[in-house]
Write a structure and sequence with these properties.
By secondary structure, this protein is α/β, with parallel strands linked by helices. Helices cover 28% and strands 27% of the residues.
Length: 213
């Protein structure tokens, strides 16, 4: 099935100009085309359209994958009364008596938090088998360690970092996987200022894995 993902502004990087009122055409797992929405819609009248507010851009790479998934516990909502809802690290984590199964469940919840921030890959290496399994099942990519990962290890890769440092490589139009994110902001400057919590949609290889609205 062909799907047009339309947004107020489409930025695919790689030296390509931004496209106001643009769209990307997804054919299964592949990013088949990108350009003005009106042009793509006319060329592919059978394609369904998903219209998003704001900025469509390559997804983000979290530079501290091990810290956010292997050194942080993401509580189950059923544990909120005992542990709260915020991720736990340090002494709070050390007192939990973590098992491999519990690490896997935590990683699955952590991955969902990352997807909700437009993250499509994490910088590794990841060593816990249960965490690796959770990341692979979700379809997140794993990249080499970041040269300058910064200090913040929360789910927002933009916390204290520039957009250029955490943007994934541009997708290859016509042959590469349809992997991107959409943020409810007018442009890249606003995304840097407001952070990745503005994410409204994340797509991994053609699959809509997160949507806020």
């Amino acid at each position: 099935m062909l799907t047009l993902h339309a947004a107020d502004l489409v930025v695919l990087g790689g030296g390509r100009p931004a496209v106001p009122d643009g769209a990307v055409l997804v054919d299964g797992r592949t990013l088949a085309a990108a350009g003005p929405y009106a042009v793509l819609a006319a060329a592919h009248p059978a394609a369904r359209t998903r219209r998003w507010p704001g900025l469509l851009t390559p997804g983000l790479v979290h530079p501290r994958g091990p810290e956010v998934l292997e050194h942080t516990y993401h509580p189950d909502p059923r544990e909120a009364g005992e542990l709260g809802t915020a991720p736990l690290t340090g002494e709070a984590l050390a007192g939990l008596g973590m098992t491999e199964a519990r690490w896997g469940a935590s990683a699955r919840r952590g991955v969902q938090r990352l997807l909700a921030h437009g993250v499509v890959a994490v910088a590794g290496p990841l060593r816990r088998p249960a965490v690796v399994d959770a990341v692979q099942r979700a379809g997140l990519g794993v990249r080499p360690p970041a040269e300058d990962p910064g200090d913040a290890a929360g789910p927002d890769p933009l916390a204290g970092r520039s957009l250029a440092r955490v943007t994934a490589p541009p997708p290859a139009v016509g042959e590469g996987p349809a992997t991107f994110a959409v943020f409810d902001v007018p442009d890249e400057a606003a995304l840097t200022a407001r952070g990745a919590a503005t994410c409204v949609a994340t797509v991994l290889a053609g699959r809509l894995v997160h949507r806020r609205r």
